[in-house]
Amino acid sequence: MTEHRQLYDKVFSLIEQHDSWMSKTINLIASENVSSPAVRSAIVCDFRDRYAEGWPGERVYAGCKYIDEVELICIDLAKKLFRAEFADVRPVSGVVANLMMYTAMMEPLDRMMALSIAHGGHISHARKSLGGTAGAVRGHKVRNWVFDEKEFNIDVDASIKEIRRLQEKGQEIRFLLFGGSVFPFPHPVKEFREIADEFGMHIGYDSAHVSGLIAAGRFQDPLREGADIMTASTHKTLPGPQHGIVLSKAEFADAVKVAAFPGLLSNHHLHNVAGLAVALAEMIEFGKEYADQVIRNAKALAQALHERGWNVVAEHKGFTESHVVLVDVSETPMKDGRTVEEHLERANIIINRNLLPWDKKMGRDYRRPGGIRLGSSEMTRLGMKESEMDAIVEFMHRVVMKGEDVDRVAADVAEFRKDFQKVHFAFDTETPAYAHLRFR
Ligand code: DSN
């Protein structure tokens, strides 16, 4: 056998090892989910090998008659689910969706407000000195929202004061961006509509983490609260394929469309548009029930940790209103999020380390931060409820607080996972959740 054939076979062997491991793990990564068998079936269709530049019906390529119909179905489902006047389902990721939003709503170098990373913002919202997409790619000057660490949310009065100060100083802000990667509580969008109108600013909302909850009507409704445009990736609480979406008021449709093509995209990954259409149809059918359980499970995770003495952020507010739970682990025997992450992974529990708002003043940074971030979406999709969240926390507690042998906990986790092998809230609930389609 040639060396290349061995490597070729090794790739398939690694895929199988990964799939098998996933079926034995507790995955609490807040930005991930498991897609339904129908979504996975759609994304391996021949669309994956095609091009379709432009808008359905106005393509630059021939051969798109069925692709166009699927994309139009996807657009209609997105508009219905999010009650949006306009939807563009072409962005290939959440970052590309954000770039489309910046391109449509601002001139290069314009100033914008966004959440800092330590307060839950995403790297695509960040300034150039951090390598953030907004600053490094578009040249936007990013000012950060004033953040209330106790309320774990944007400080409305102080932020309005800051916007007014900057406008009066001639540092004109053009765009207000809400949303991010860690925000357990709805952002105050409607509170900023008046000042946005006063200074001619537009409002955007990055719903990547919470788009599944928003679609179900269970978090906040940015497009009704004053946002002009909303972006998302489609594979977090919204359990679709790895892709993106832009939703906006009709008046911004043309600007968004040209930002997509010819601006940012040539191929827009047509197989994932098909997968997204399927995911949106399943969300319309099962989304409310799913989102309710996601939120109940996140609260149950937080409560179970709190009861065992862990320091969960925002206790006085009930910890979370979304899928996400933030925990300060700096006082645990492991002292930092990275050590916790590494030990839990060895015990088949997959979580993220996460920067806390107060890490910097404690001398910590993103490499060894004081926090961990947990999300309830994927385990909810597998049919887990509040009592399973308590069981999950007990596994975590054995590793982090009691220092138990990780291999023993890993074996117990794998045993526990045996009863949760199918995706719920989907039309097909029989195909194993982590099975992959094999053609060889
Ligand atoms: N970096 C991802 C997250 O975990 O939030 C989103 O792109």
List low-confidence stretches.
none
Going by helix content, strand content and strand pairing, the class is alpha/beta
For the sheet with most strands, the description reads: 7 strands, mixed
The general outline is: globular
Element-by-element helix/strand order: HEHHEHEHEEEHEHEHHEEHHEEHEEEHHH
- Count the DSSP helices: 15
The CATH level-2 architecture of the largest domain is identified as 3-Layer(aba) Sandwich
Strand content: 5-15%
Description of the structure:
With 440 residues, the chain is α/β, with parallel strands linked by helices. The chain folds into two domains: 40-281, Aspartate Aminotransferase, domain 2 (3-Layer(aba) Sandwich), CATH 3.40.640; 287-417, Alpha-Beta Complex (Aspartate Aminotransferase, domain 1), CATH 3.90.1150.10. Helices cover 42% and strands 13% of the residues. The protein is built from 15 helices and 15 strands. The protein has helices at 3-22, 37-42, 65-82, 94-105, 133-138, 156-168, 193-199, 211-215, 222-225, 253-264, 270-307, 337-346, 377-381, 386-400, 406-417; strands at 26-27, 86-88, 111-114, 141-144, 147-148, 153-154, 173-179, 202-206, 229-233, 244-248, 311-312, 324-328, 349-350, 352-354, 371-375. The strands form four sheets. Strands 2-10-9-8-7-3-4 form a seven-stranded mixed beta sheet, sandwiched between helices. It has a four-stranded antiparallel beta sheet with strand order 11-12-15-14. It has a two-stranded parallel ribbon with strand order 1-13. Helix 4 (94-105) packs across helix 10 (253-264) and helix 14 (386-400) runs antiparallel to helix 15 (406-417). The longest helix has 38 residues, at 270-307. The protein is globular, with a radius of gyration of 22 Å.
